[in-house]
Each structure stands twice: as structure tokens, then as C-alpha cells.
Amino acid sequence: MGDPAGIGPGIILNALRDIRTGDGVLYVVIGDRDVFNGLAGPGVLREVSPEDAAAFRFPGSGISLVDPGGALEGNVFGKPTEKGAAKSLSCIDTAVDLVKRTPEGIKSAIVTAPVSKEAVAAVCPGFVGHTEHLQKAFGAEKVTMVMVGEKLKVVPVTRHIPLKDVPGSLTPELIVDTIRQVVADRYIVSGAEDPSIAVCALNPHCGEGGRIGREELDIIGPAVAAAARDYPRIKGPVSADVVFYKALKGEVDIVLSMYHDQCLSPFKMVDFDRGVNMTLGLGHVRTSPDHGTAFDIAGKGIADHGSMLAAIKLALRAVEN
Amino acid sequence: MGDPAGIGPGIILNALRDIRTGDGVLYVVIGDRDVFNGLAGPGVLREVSPEDAAAFRFPGSGISLVDPGGALEGNVFGKPTEKGAAKSLSCIDTAVDLVKRTPEGIKSAIVTAPVSKEAVAAVCPGFVGHTEHLQKAFGAEKVTMVMVGEKLKVVPVTRHIPLKDVPGSLTPELIVDTIRQVVADRYIVSGAEDPSIAVCALNPHCGEGGRIGREELDIIGPAVAAAARDYPRIKGPVSADVVFYKALKGEVDIVLSMYHDQCLSPFKMVDFDRGVNMTLGLGHVRTSPDHGTAFDIAGKGIADHGSMLAAIKLALRAVEN
Questions:
Q1: Whole-complex ipTM
Q2: Which of A179, A229, B29, B236 has the smallest count of CB within 10 Å of its CB?
Q3: Helix, strand, coil % (nearest 5) of chain B?
Q4: What is the pLDDT of residues A208-228, one digit of tens each?
């Protein structure tokens, strides 16, 4: 559901309307029944009780609704509340539970909708975002965040840390492990069997042979060389002010960057409305639209559901492979 | 001329062919006579002796050639030499000299062509690039590098330094001084009388209120607030993964970034072939195409002269204002 006061519920319903349901795929919306029935109209979503959901008893296809409980009583779009934040979190946990209970032979995926990190952190101290919460919930040692757009596919090696901490956080192991997770899921990420991967430099002009920083020589270069032994279609370090130009032209399929803004700035510039955030390494598929709760436009019917639609489609591609 | 073994001479001639000359503007090519006459054919460029050039005696319009001396004897495109690098440097110094000698009432500008930094540094220890060399030659206390493209106009506050040194290099004074140079030349940079200027954050998500770094609160925010007292059409810090999307949509005219790749990566992605590098603060106009010597394609007649053409046109706009 995401935060019930945000655009999450609306974009979920609009995206599901655009998906051809009934082709053997079971869509389960996890959220507040009043919020969803209020938006969709009564009877559109088939409610499944928490007991049936816990036993994974769902109708064979179509769209089901599971309400994990804790009625919101008067949810108002644009007005986030502590209760709403708590419910957005219990929806995530219910999704994790359902995915873990999925019977053998059925493949499952989680698509999350935007939550307010600050609001969830207020009811769940230590919450920093979906990615880290799911990492803990699934007991994953290392996860990788991938942004999949129509034009670019990018991977930040480090994520939400201060820029000054980036150089010290980079190790050959971290870079190699990230590359391996990307290589393992390269078809899901890129849609190509054999995508080319370019790894960004950290410093301007790729460090100019050590004159503008040594990380290219000491850390990134050796990591790329090690990874290339298993997957030769990888190269780097490549100057960041060249690699995105090449990626936009289609000469590079996936760009691995050293820090958040290095790839997110070019990515959002050209894929703002269609970006999908995907988490690799969970052992389960998880995608998410690449935007926030947008409380300012929630409930007005004007939110673009393109990113949510792309997130659902990417999850479908992932479970099919 | 730039490096005579690079694409500089060719793109200069091709760009000048595309410019409507003869409208009261005097174009002076400073370079090797054999190289230029070899490319243009004899008699196309009117050679002016160093003595006449030193006395600023030029024909009233058209294209003149000044050769500062030091014949190259057998320049080969794609094969840079020490002699060629030395001559590319003496061309720059001749340009500085001519600009300084420009008679009252005549406006002048320098457009530089790409040199090989490494090759020039070998004959002139300490040479790191045109910008710093010209800063010293003109005795400028502070200069600002601006990249002017068709789609984006961007300004890095710090330039060619290791990423790890960026946070420590940022001070409110540096940011305010950079903003002031941009504001002073805002029409030249943007083509608008009253452009909006956005200043990038340093950390992901604009530091999230101090949770992901404090530079936004301690350094960038106060600098923007101080600068906004003189020029209200400035705002920031703005998250870097949002500001370039807005700039590409036309909602922001000029983006000031904290470091090289933060703005050069988005810039080159969409303005690779038309970017112009401009130096503010010299007391004289200086522009340059935003690419290197491209030794690999030099002399083949295939180099795109669009960036050089844009650099000349921007220099014309600058001297007209």
C-alpha cells in the first residue's frame, strides 16, 4: 500500500487497471480496506481474510485484497498520521510473510509503494527504508539496489551515506560482490542475455593516472579486473562524464557507480517518470517505483502511475526468469 | 590552434567556414602556417607578421593567421610531438598578448582549441590546463569554469581534485564567490536576463536534514542564503538527483554543482557534441570546445566541429554584451 495518505493506493489501482490480469498471475494488494474500496469502489477487489492469506488460500487469479488489520478510521490524503505509517509498515511485513509462505511451484514477488521514511522511523526506530528493512526481514547478507529505467540501468555501489564517507567505504570486495549480484540477475535488470557493464571511476577524468586520486588504480581497477575473469563483458573504471553518454546512446547496458548521486542524477534526468528501484540479493524479487509519497498531490487523481506500472512489469519479468 | 597533431586545426577551419564572417568581426587564427595552409589551401588565411600582430595591425575583417614562430617541420595528425605541444602553448600565450594589446574601443575574446595536458606539462612543468594557465597569465584571483550547452548550463564549484578532497574544499566563501561570478555574467552564460540558478546539495537526498551529512546545513545553505540577498532568483541546496531533471525540463536555467562529475556527467550525457567550456573572472572572454585533442581521428576530416562553432558563437555573444 505504502503510506495511505500518499499516492501509493491510487497508483497501485491505476497500474493494475493497465495490466492484463487473469493470465495465471495472482495479484494481492496488501492495504487498508477502506482506503482501497473507497478508491476502487466496493467489490472490485476480492478481500481475503488474514487467516486465509496466512494459509495462502487465494482465488486462482484476479486481484485480491488483504488487510493486515489496524483500521485507520478517517484516512485523509495528504495528511500522514502515525497510524498510517504503522499500517504501511505492517503491510510490508505481511508481504514478506506471504512471500515466505508461497507454496512450492508458485513464484512470488513483492512490489512496494512509497512510504514516508521519517513517519515509519517514528513508529519503528532504526527504519531507514524498504531496502534495508527487507534485507533484515529476509536475512540477506548483502543486497544491491538497481535502478531500471527505459533509457538507463544503473547500480550504486554505496547508497545513502554522506559523500565524505564514500571513498573510505569502497573496497575491491564490495565492488566485486555488487558486480556479482548484478551479473547473476543481468537479464532481469537489462532485458539482454549478455549485457555490457561499465564501472564508473570515482574521481574526475578517471583519476588521470593517479594525478587526481588513486582509487581507480588501487581499488576500482583491481575489482573490475577480478570480476572480468568471470564475466568478460565488463569494463572500467570509465570516467563518469563519459559513461552515461555512452549508456544513453546504447553502447553500455548497465552502469555501476560508486555513489548515489553519481548514477541517480543522470538516471532521474532522463528516466524520472518510469524508473523502477529493484533490490537484488534478497532471494526474492522486490521492485518499487522510484518516487516518494507525494503527499502534496495524493488523492487528486493526478499522480502518474507509470513508475508503479513499470515496477509491476519488471517484477513479472523477474519471476518469469 | 590547440595541439597541431589533434583535431584543433581542422575544427577551427570548419567552424569558421560556418560562421558568417565579414560583419565587422576580425578572426585571428593563431597557429602553424604549414598546418593551416595545408588544410585550408594557400591564400585562404591572410597571414599577418608577428610584428604587425604585436602592433595590432590587422586587416579590418575576415580571417587572419598569426604564426608565433617555431616551425613544426612535418606535423603528422595523430602523432603528438614535444615541438607541437610547445607550439600549442606559445599560441595560447600569443593570444593572451594580443588580447592585452587590443586597442580601446575594440572588444576581444579568446577561443582555445584542445591541447594535450600531459604533452604541454612535459614542456611547461606545472601546466594543468587552459583555465589555470590563463588565470595566471591574466593575473586573475579567482576564475569560474562554466559549461554551456544547448540543453544545460552548469558550473562546478570545485574542479579537477580527487573526490575525497571535495567536502573539505567547500566553504561558504568559495560558493558565494562562484555564484557572484556567475550572476555577473548570467546573460552571457544563459542567454536570459534573469535566469534562475539552482545550487546542488553535496549529499544524497540533500542530506535529509543532517542525517546523511551536514554540509547542506553548515556550508551550502548559508552560502545560498547570503547570495540570495543580492540575487533572489537563486535557490538551494537542491538534491542533485532532482535538479538536472528540472534543468532539462527548463525549470532551472543554471545549475551550480559542488564537484566536477556532479554536473559534468549529466551535462555531457545530453550536450556531449555541443558543449562549450567558458572561463569567468579573467577580465576577458574565453571559451573553448568541451572535448579533447582526439588524436585517433585527427586529420581524417571526420571530427565534429559543432562544439568549436558553439564556442565561437558564445564568444561573440559575450563580446556583444
A1: 0.90
A2: A229
A3: 45, 15, 40
A4: 889 899 999 999 999 999 999
